[in-house]
Amino acid sequence: EDLRVYFTERDQMVIDHAVSVRAKKAEVLTTYIDVEALPFNRGYYSCDLTFFFEIQVEVYSGHAVPCTVITGVGIFQKKVILYGSEGSVRVFNSEYRSDAPDFQEMPTRNMPRCSVQIAEPVVLAARLVDACECNCCNCGCGCNCGCIPECITQRYGGCFCDRPEGKIVYVTLGIFTIVQLIRNVQMLVPVY
């Protein structure tokens, strides 16, 4: 709910002159996943998920003016704590790694892998507010736009602006995700 949409400088000028907006479509660009062991609960892991959404918005500037469709980026962060069992063994792989000191005997962390499955998001609502009405600290300066990776900013042809003045677009998305911790284990299967 109330996910801020960041736009490039050119598209932000269109938003600043808007009367109303309507979110048309949303899709997941990528998801960053970070897995860390919890220090006081052995076998439990914190999965920090950062979702990057591409959100298409129809911008209305007046009654007689046709709408303009622009695209922005929304960032949503979620922390999930899951049980991933305890791994008390060291793992050695014979995989080739170009940056490893010894390709054949590189020990890896014995952490589970996190897998995230996400269905296409559903746009539930969109609203346009002035920066001074946004109820966030420092009057509209959420500073999340600096967290947008360079690979995404290059896709849109420039940096995303995060000015304390102007107008801000918030959307509400419905998402369904399945988060799993996966660990390789050995199984002994009797064969008769």
Name the features.
mainly beta; about 190 residues; about 5% helix; two-stranded antiparallel ribbon; 2 helices; elongated; single chain
- Strand arrangement within the widest β-sheet reads 2-3-4-1-9-8
Span from first to last CA? 56 Å
**Overall shape:** elongated
Structural category is mainly beta
Low-confidence stretches: 137-144
Order of helices and strands: EHEEEEEEEHEE
Rg estimate, integer Å: 22 Å
Question: What proportion of the residues form beta strands (DSSP E)?
Answer: over 45%
Mean pLDDT: 81
Annotation field: number of helices:
2
Q: Please describe the biggest sheet, giving its number of strands, its sense, and whether it closes into a barrel.
A: 6 strands, antiparallel
Explain this structure to me?
It is a single chain. This protein has helices at 9-16, 150-155, and strands at 3-6, 20-37, 44-60, 68-83, 91-93, 106-108, 113-118, 122-130, 167-174, 177-182. By secondary structure, the chain is mostly beta strands. The longest helix is centred in the N-terminal third of the chain and has 8 residues, at 9-16. Strands 2-3-4-1-9-8 form a 6-stranded antiparallel beta sheet, covered by helices on one side. The protein has 2 helices and 10 strands; from the N terminus they run E-H-E-E-E-E-E-E-E-H-E-E. The N and C termini lie far apart (56 Å).
